[in-house]
From TrEMBL:
Keywords for the protein's UniProt record, in alphabetical order: Membrane, Transmembrane, Transmembrane helix
Keyword Transmembrane helix found: yes
Listed Pfam families: DUF502
Domain of life: Bacteria
Protein's UniProt name: DUF502 domain-containing protein
Coiled-coil region(s): none
Organism: Candidatus Desantisbacteria bacterium CG_4_10_14_0_8_um_filter_39_17
Keyword Ligase on entry: no
Entry-linked InterPro entries: COV1-like (IPR007462)
Length: 206
């Protein structure tokens, strides 16, 4: 009995340590992968441009960061912004590319909060006539430009993210089935993806 309790305690300690270090490990992993991509991509360019023995490892990463900052700065200039829109309009005319690029662009704008939309709202969705509810994000509330039969003035599209994995599904439901809540999109996604796991001591016993 004592050994069983001891094993359970060790397991809980290990699990807490894993949950504490996992987000940090994943963040470091992604940053390192991005840095390696910068180094391998821009490093080749610098080696070709710079004289022999002038290149220092890490300069590719620095150049990549500088280019991203310059891109963010230049995109605010009228001429550059207009040119970028022309490039986007060209991409949106290419089959398959326009679907992929358009979807990724809308998703990035939605998650970053740069998309100006009144539909950017976190809600609780009621399932049937029960008290069961799901956390979701309203992605569309205006169906005036949508195909006939997809929705009306009383319809909203709500994205329901899955827990512990990347993905989810979109439901088209009446407005009466949702209840807006005061929560940021990033916080709502964190709650949904982690399964609303709480670190508060008071949540251990319900």
């Amino acid at each position: 009995m004592a050994k069983s309790i001891e094993k359970t305690s060790i397991y809980k300690i290990f699990l807490k340590g894993l949950l504490a270090i996992l987000p940090l490990f994943i963040t470091i992993y992604l940053v390192v992968k991005l840095g390696k991509w910068f180094e391998s991509t821009f490093g080749v360019i610098l080696r070709w441009i710079l004289p022999v023995n002038w290149y220092i490892p890490g300069m590719g990463v620095v150049l990549g960061v500088i280019l991203i900052l310059l891109m963010g700065l230049f995109i605010q200039v009228w001429f550059v912004r207009k040119t970028w829109r022309w490039i986007e309009s060209f991409l949106e005319k290419i089959p398959l590319v326009k679907e992929i690029y358009g979807s990724l662009k809308q998703l990035a704008q939605y998650l970053s909060g740069t998309q100006k939309s009144s539909s950017n709202q976190v809600v609780m969705v009621t399932i049937g006539d029960s008290d069961t509810r799901l956390l979701g994000l309203v992605t569309r509330s205006d169906f005036s430009d949508a195909p006939e039969g997809m929705g009306n003035n009383e319809t909203v599209a709500v994205y329901l993210p899955w827990s512990y994995q990347v993905g989810g599904f979109t439901v088209y439901i009446p407005r009466s089935k949702i209840k807006p809540i005061n929560m940021k999109t990033e916080e709502a996604l964190r709650w949904a993806i982690t399964g609303a796991v709480s670190a508060k001591e008071g949540d251990k016993n319900i």
